[in-house]
Write a sequence for this structure.
């Protein structure tokens, strides 16, 4: 089958999903000879209208994994995307714990929106909360595997006689989907961090970068010390602040972060691909 356009489509607050999706899409573009376009739906203004793809498009579509699922504040937008028979490669990036049902959820949502899943992947990437959990990933080994994955996709595509001959790729996960992962303390009690928001130190110069870059548009542009709307704990503001003024100090958040680092920094989880 021929491809008209390869798309790198992603939500990527800390650039790890962007890095992986872009590598796969670039390699598919090179091998197919089709032009590469990018759809970065991390900024809130990119999600004001549903995205429509076209027949002949090949969409490498990536999201992070939050609590074992596609982020709950993002899934409604993903479900609004119109595929119109375009091919899709769903990819999820998780922080070395587990991707649980996230890949199944993304796969099913894209299929329901009219995209045809050709292949899929799950990659361990540096956790948004942490500087040590899966630190530096995707690394050179991950990106080599991503390039090889693209080669396998290109081979599958070349052998496909028609779109009608394509069955949805089988992926790991529960269907129906299981519940979101619930962090717990050492006594088994659930830890709730849903309403936790970042704090701002006196080092803030009110440059406004955090407000400009917040994927939910929740940080007040007039007073960036204030988070007006919901927070998905993506840590984009923490990572981007040039003064290091953004931080989280909620005890439950810090406990959960420390437990994740203690339990899931090792062993290294290797990429999984589905074809």
């Amino acid at each position: 089958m021929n491809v008209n356009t390869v798309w790198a489509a992603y939500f990527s607050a800390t650039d790890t999903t962007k890095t992986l999706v872009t590598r796969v899409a670039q390699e598919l573009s090179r091998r197919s000879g089709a032009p590469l376009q990018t759809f970065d739906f991390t900024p809130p203004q990119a999600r004001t209208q549903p995205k429509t793809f076209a027949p002949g498009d090949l969409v490498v579509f990536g999201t992070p994994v939050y609590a074992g699922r596609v982020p709950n504040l993002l899934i409604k937008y993903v479900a609004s995307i119109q595929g119109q028979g375009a091919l899709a490669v769903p990819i999820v990036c998780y922080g070395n714990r587990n991707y649980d049902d996230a890949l199944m959820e993304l796969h099913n949502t894209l299929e329901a929106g009219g995209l045809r899943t050709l292949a899929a992947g799950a990659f361990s990437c540096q956790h948004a909360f942490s500087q040590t959990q899966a630190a530096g990933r995707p690394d050179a080994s991950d990106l080599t595997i991503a390039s090889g994955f693209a080669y396998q996709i290109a081979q599958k595509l070349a052998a496909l006689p028609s779109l009608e001959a394509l069955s949805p790729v089988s992926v790991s996960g529960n269907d129906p989907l299981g519940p979101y992962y619930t962090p717990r303390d050492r006594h088994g009690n659930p830890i709730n961090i849903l309403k936790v928001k970042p704090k701002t130190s006196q080092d803030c110069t009110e440059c406004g970068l955090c407000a400009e870059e917040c994927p939910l548009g929740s940080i007040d542009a007039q007073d960036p010390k204030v988070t007006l709307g919901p927070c998905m704990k993506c840590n984009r503001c923490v990572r981007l602040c040039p003064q290091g003024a953004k931080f989280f100090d909620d005890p439950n958040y810090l406990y959960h972060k420390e437990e994740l680092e203690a339990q899931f920094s090792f062993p290294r989880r290797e990429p999984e691909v589905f074809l």
